[in-house]
Design brief:
This protein is α/β, with parallel strands linked by helices. Helices cover 43% and strands 18% of the residues.
């Protein structure tokens, strides 16, 4: 009898320990799985700030399993690398079958999400998309929604007019020119820039270049042609036509600030971090927050993504480097400095 009770007790203890192992495993496996896919690397300033926005929303939801992935295409811009990275990522998604994918920036859409349209179980939320939804087939897909990244052009126009007013520039129409690299993202930016009504500011022809020599030439030729240069991105400028080496962003912007006959303004906050004078940029925090909220809403409601209207940029950030503003005798209201300081984007 005692032997039988001992066996029963041991069996119950075994079941308890087995349950203590299997129950957490079952709980983890039953949690909705959200994958976050960035086009670029995790140390890129834009990516870090987008992730801050995502964390603000998702960190309070332990009922989700969240995994992070990075295609790293900014540092490896060759078509071969991008294609291979996209294929590998799609295979991982097919094998692991996450419930929802948050895909950020255009390369993630070009090489991953557009191949997963109308997937029977995967819902997709995009962010940081500079091109049009139809460029990736999103307008026809039932499993996609997201937030478009658009340059804060109204804020940029207001800032340019304020600079002219506060700095005592000549009372004539300001003329600006867009300058950037040849990346997919910049092409989308330039298209949106060109289609925006900047009046009373005049817009000269854009310059999208591939090499450092071409960049330098475009900068120097701005003398007498425009009052300001506008740039969104420049991280895919090659050292020369014969080289695949990319010019480091800090080197390129340092050269530009020291040699440009006219001031340059960026439309991403990292422009000032790279050494630039002033940036009126799309908010990466907003891109991350909105994408994460859309993901939560989809998981809670079970709705089809295409039932949720697409969002677009509503906020912007200010970043500035006061030494270059002073060197060019440019002034802005103090609220600009306060805005930059509030997000640690103010540099001496």
């Amino acid at each position: 009898m005692n032997h039988r009770l001992s066996r029963l007790r041991n069996g119950l203890i075994g079941l308890f320990f087995l349950g203590s192992v299997l129950l957490p495993a079952w709980y983890q496996s039953s949690k909705p799985r959200v994958w976050i896919l960035h086009s670029y690397d995790k140390n890129y300033s834009w990516v870090k700030d987008v992730n801050i926005g995502i964390h603000r929303v998702l960190d309070g939801h332990p009922e989700l399993t969240v995994n992070w992935y990075y295609l790293d295409t900014k540092r490896h811009p060759s078509s071969e690398f991008k294609i291979n990275a996209g294929v590998s990522m799609r295979r991982m998604i097919q094998a692991a079958a996450p419930d929802l994918l948050i895909a950020i920036d255009d390369d993630a859409q070009q090489y991953v999400t557009r191949h997963l349209l109308d997937h029977p179980t995967l819902r997709i939320v995009f962010a940081g998309v500079n091109n049009q939804p139809c460029d990736y087939g999103f307008d026809q897909a039932g499993n996609v929604t997201g937030i478009l990244e658009r340059l804060p052009l109204s804020a940029l126009r207001e800032t340019l007019l304020t600079l002219a007013d506060y700095s005592g520039l000549k009372k004539r129409p300001i003329t600006i020119r867009f300058l950037g690299d040849l990346s997919e993202t910049v092409r989308g930016d330039e298209k949106n820039f060109r289609n925006f009504d900047m009046k009373p500011i005049q817009v000269a022809d854009s310059r999208l270049v591939e090499t450092f020599d071409a960049w330098q030439q475009a900068v120097l030729e701005s003398a007498g042609e425009v009052d300001f240069l506008i740039t969104s991105n420049y991280r895919k400028i090659r050292r020369s036509a014969e080289s695949d080496e990319l010019v480091p962003a800090r080197e390129l912007i340092d050269w530009t600030e020291r040699h440009s006959p006219v001031p340059m303004i960026g439309t991403n906050g990292f422009f000032a971090e790279d050494g630039g004078m002033l940036a009126i940029g799309t908010s990466p925090f907003e891109q991350g927050e909105v994408a994460a909220r859309l993901a939560l809403e989809l998981i809670r409601s079970g709705e089809s993504p295409n039932q949720m209207p697409l969002r677009s940029t509503g906020q912007f950030v200010v970043a500035m480097r006061t030494s270059w503003l002073q060197a060019r005798h440019l002034r802005l209201p103090q609220v600009y400095e306060a805005a930059a300081r509030s997000i640690n984007k103010y540099y001496e």
